[in-house]
């Protein structure tokens, strides 16, 4: 699945780079959608494998670190809270 995702990302960015000046807005949106679909195909198995590698008591902390764009900050806050609270 990750290989399909990498092909979608590479193809979407490549086509967007080549045809960016000649595409209507809807074409650029469609290529961006293909790129983001590729991102999902790459990230889903990677995150699942990472979560499966954690011991059960750390899965919540690992998930906390992944949930949004500020993952590093949230990850650190979760570990500080976990070590202080217990």
Offer a quick outline of the entry:
By secondary structure, the protein is mainly α. It is 79% helix and 0% strand.
Molecular structure report:
This protein has 86 residues and is an all-alpha fold. The protein folds into two domains: 53 residues, no CATH class; 32 residues, no CATH class. The protein is 79% helix and 0% strand. The protein is built from four helices and no strands. The longest helix is centred in the middle third of the chain and has 29 residues. The protein starts with a helix and ends with a helix. The mean pLDDT is 78.
Tally of individual domains: 2
Shape, please? elongated
SS field, number of helical segments: 4
| Separation of the first and last Cα atoms | 38 Å
Summing up helix and strand content along with how strands pair, one would put the structural category as mainly alpha
How much helical structure, as a percent, in the residues? Answer: over 70%
Q: What can be said about the biggest beta sheet?
A: none
- Uncertain stretches: none
Strand segment count = 0
* Beta strand %: under 5%
State mean pLDDT (0 to 100 scale).
Answer: 78
Order of helices and strands: HHHH
As a whole number of angstroms, the C-alpha radius of gyration is 18 Å
């Amino acid at each position: 699945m990750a290989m399909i995702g990498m092909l979608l990302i590479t193809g979407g960015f490549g086509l967007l780079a080549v045809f960016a000046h000649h595409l209507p807005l809807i074409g650029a949106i469609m290529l961006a959608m293909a790129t983001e679909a590729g991102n999902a195909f790459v990230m889903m198995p990677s995150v699942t494998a990472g979560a499966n590698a954690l011991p059960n008591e750390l899965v919540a902390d690992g998930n906390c670190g992944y949930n949004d764009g500020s993952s590093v900050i949230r990850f650190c806050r979760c570990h500080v809270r976990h070590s202080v609270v217990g």
